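Each record in this resource describes a single protein on a pair of labelled lines. The shape at a given residue is found from the number at the same position. The record below illustrates this layout:

***
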Amino acid sequence: MKVVLLFLGKTTDDYARQALKVYQERLGHYLNLQIEEVPDLKSTKSLSEAQVKAREAEAVLAWVKPENQVVLLDERGLEQTSVQFATWMQKKMNSGLRSLVFVVGGPYGFDDSVYEAVKERLSLSRMTFSHQMVRVFFIEQLYRAMTILHGEPYHHA
């Protein structure tokens, strides 16, 4: 199974790019991982929040295909412990999925069309984080899940 991290907008902060690189390399031992960044929208100053979300929705909806299971990282999603997330991942890997696509949205969240098309959602916390930090937190949790599943000492429960 391939795991895709789909980010709306570029990863601009140096610390975030560095952390993503470190965890992407570590995850290479466990997963076929692909990071996709949808370029930032141009000329958004004249657009409303709803218009920005609608334009970003096109990029997300392009990934909604029968061979992909798309999961939104969303504040209204399912909250899990790291061990629960590892178990959730194991079930996904055992299910025969071809691709599991995790989406980190833009600054305004997701358009209603995305919520209608994608039913599965995960939340990292009830707190709000910058989209740069969510990328780092999530890839670290993905790595943590893989080490839990392999019985490695990275996670100390």
